[in-house]
Amino acid sequence: MCGIVGYVGNRDSQKILIEGLKKLEYRGYDSAGVAVFTEKGLEVRKAKGRLAVLEERLNEKPLVGTIGIGHTRWATHGKPSDVNSHPHTDSSLKISVVHNGIIENFLQLKEELIAAGHTFVSETDTEVISHLIASLYKGDIVKAVQQAVKRMRGAYAIAVLSEFEPDKLVAVRLASPLIVGLGRGENFIGSDIPAILEHTRDVFILSDGEMAVLTRDGVELMTVEGNPIRKEVFRVDWDIATAEKAGYDHFMQKEIHEQPQAYRDTMRGRIDENGGLVKLPEIPLSPEELRAFSRIHIVACGTAFHAGMVGKHTIERLARIPVEIDIASEYRYRDPIIDRDTLVIAVSQSGETADTLAALREAKRRGAKVLAITNVVGSSVAREADYVIPTWAGPEIAVASTKAYTSQLIVFYLLGLYLAQSLGTQDEAFIREVTGAMRRLPEQVEEVLKQAGRIKRIAEDISRHQNLFFIGRGFDYAVALEGSLKLKEISYIHSEAYAAGELKHGTLALIEEGVPVIALATQDALFEKTVSNIIEVKARGAYVFGIANEGDSELAKSVDEVLHIPRTLPLLTPALSVIPLQLLAYYASLARGNDVDKPRNLAKSVTVE
Ligand code: F6R
Predict the structure, then answer these.
(1) Which of 123, 230, 254, 607 is the most buried if burial means most Cβ atoms within 10 Å?
(2) How many CA atoms lie within 13 A of 550 on its CB side?
C-alpha cells in the first residue's frame, strides 16, 4: 500500500505533489519521491525516510515545472532505500513511473528486458514497468502503456510521465485504488481522495482495467484495451479527516473493513493459480533443508502472539513438526533449548517491538535460523532475520491491531501448507482443498462484516458491564484470547479468555447473574465439549453470546444469542471468527466514548523492553 499523486496544470507542481503526499503518508512512509518535467527534461528526486527528508532535498534543489508525479512508499519488493524509492525510470531516463501494488511476473519480465539490453538499478518490481514501457514506445505513450499493461500480472495502480510527451500523465488501475481529480486548467491523480481534496471535490473513481490520460485541459477515460468510457463525476462532500479514513469514523473501523483486501494481497502470488499448491520463494530452502528443522519456536508479543498460537496449531497439524510458542519478553530469560535444527519464527506487525527483537537476537546467538513474519519490510526484525515473509496488510494506523493479525494468520496457513507440501505430510488433494477454501475467505469476511449492525447492538449491551469472559477450545481458544485483548485495550472493560474446559478449575467462581460470556463454538470436533462448558456457565446465571458456523442450529438451544459465521474448514475459522470480536471491541469502545484509535497508556510500536 503506497501513495500516488500526479499533477498537470499551470502551477508549481512540486508544491502540489508534496502537499498531496503529506495527505497520503498514512498509506506508507518509508521513502518518497517526485518526478517533474523541468526545462532540463524529466528530473527525479527521491529519498529514503519520511517525506520531510525529500522535502529538504527539494528545498536545496527545487524542481521547477507544471507537470509531475509523486510517491510515498511502503516497501514491498526491495528494502527502503534511495534507489528503491519511486519514481523509477528506464535506462534513458525518459519515462518515469510511480506504482502502488505488486507486479507478480516482474522477475520474468526483468530477465527478458535485461536480455534486450536494459540495465536495472533497483530491487523493485516497479522499475520493470518503466523499462517495459520504454521498450514498447513507438511514438505514442498511451499505446505503450496499454501494451505494457497487457504483459503485467498482478494488482497495481500506476502513473506515468514521459519526456517524449511531457504534457500528458497516463494512469492505470488494476486492483489498487486510483482517482482522478478534475480542476480548471489543471487535473490531478491520487491514490485516495485526501491527496487532492484541497484542490477539487470533483473526481472520477477509476475501476479495475480502466485508464485515464490527463492533460492541462482535460481527462480522457478508456479501458486498458483503448475503448473510450464515460463515467459519472463523483462529488466529494467529506472533510479531510473523514477522507483520510475513506469515510469511516475511525482508522480501526477502516482497517477492519480492509481485511478482505489484506487477505487477497497476502495470498496473491503465493497460491499457484492452476495447481492450487503454495509457493513461498521467501524461504529458499530445499525439502531436505526444511526436513532438518526438528522443532519450531514462535516468539511474539500481544496480538502477534495470539496469531502465533493459531500458527502453532496450524503447523503442528499440517506439517507435524513440534512447535513451542513463547511470549517474546519471556523467551530469552528461560534459557530456551535452541540449536541449529531450530527454526525460530518472530511475528511482529511493526517489526520494531523491542522484546521480539531481543528474542530474535538471542535465537540467532544460539545458532537458530530465524524467519520473520512482519508487516514492515524495512523493519529491524525483517533486516535481522534470515528469511522474511511479509504480510501485505498495508500500514496499520489504529493502535489495536486487526488487519495485521489476520494477515499473520494467512501467512501461517500458507507456511503450514508449504511445509506440509515440502515434507510430504499431507497429500496434494488436501492442500488444494485448503487453498481453495482460503481463496473464499475474503468474500466470507465480507459476509461477517454485514452483521456489523447487530454486533453494535450486542456491544452496546456489553459496554455496560465491568467484567466479561471469552471461552473456546482449540483454535477457538486462541481466537478468544485475541477477542479478549481487543476488548480490554480499547473499551477498558476487564475481560478474560479461558480454554472452555479450564473454567471449572477456578474461574467458574467468578460467574454470577448477568455476567456476559462470549462462547466460540466453531470447531466441530470439540463442539459438544464446548456446549457442556456453556451449560456450566449458564447454570450460574451467565448471559451467553455464542459464535457458531452457519447452518449450525444446535448452539442456539444452549445460549442467549448466536452470531453465525460462514462455514469454512475448521483450521481456517480463526480468520472469520475473530472479525465479530474485533467489531465487538470497536463498538464497545465507541459506546463508552473512548478514543478508539489511540487507547490510553498504549503505543502502536513498543520499542522498550
Ligand atoms: C494489540 C496490539 C499489540 C501488538 C504488540 C506487538 O492490538 O497491537 O498487542 O500486537 O505490541 O506488536 P508488533 O506486532 O508490532 O510486534
Answers:
(1) 254
(2) 12
Between the CA of 604 and the centroid of ligand 1 the distance, in Å, is 7
Instruction: Please list, residue by residue across 120-153, b when 16 or more beta carbons sit within 10 angstroms of its beta carbon and e when fewer do.
Output: bebebbbbbbbbbbbbbbeeebbebbbbbbebbb
What is the whole-number distance in angstroms between the Cα of residue 302 and the centre of ligand 1? 5
Quick: pLDDT tens for 222-243: 999 999 999 999 888 777 777 7
Lowest mean pLDDT among 318-327, 526-535, 560-569: 526-535
Phi first, then psi: give them for residue 6, nearest 5 degrees: -150, 150
d(CA 422, CA 139): 49
Q: In the structure grid, which three cell numbers stand for residue 462, read together?
A: 456489553
Query: In this predicted structure, what is the pLDDT of residue 609?
Result: 67
Burial of 37 (0-12, 13-18, 19+ CB in 10 A): buried
Rounded Cα gap, residues 272 and 210, in angstroms = 26
User: Residue 202: in which H helix or E strand, if any?
Assistant: strand 202-205
Q: Whose CA is closest to atom 11 on ligand 1?
A: 302
Q: Ligand 1 center to residue 349 CA distance, Å?
A: 7
Give me the phi and psi of 178, to 5 degrees please: -160, 135
- Report the C-alpha gap between 530 and 523 in whole angstroms: 9
Residues 388 and 374: beta-carbon distance below 8 Å = yes
Contact 494, 462 (CB under 8 A): no
Mean of all residue pLDDT scores within the chain = 94
Query: Which of 184, 191, 25, 31 has its CA nearest to residue 100?
Result: 191
CA–CA gap between residue 481 and residue 544 (Å, rounded): 17
Please tell me the pTM assigned to this model: 0.82
- Cell 502472539, residue? 305
| Catalytic sites, residue numbers | 2, 604
Q: Which of the listed residues 373, 401, 488 should we mutate to test ligand 1's pocket, taking the one with most ligand atoms within 8 A of CB?
A: 401
3-state class (DSSP) for residue 23: helix
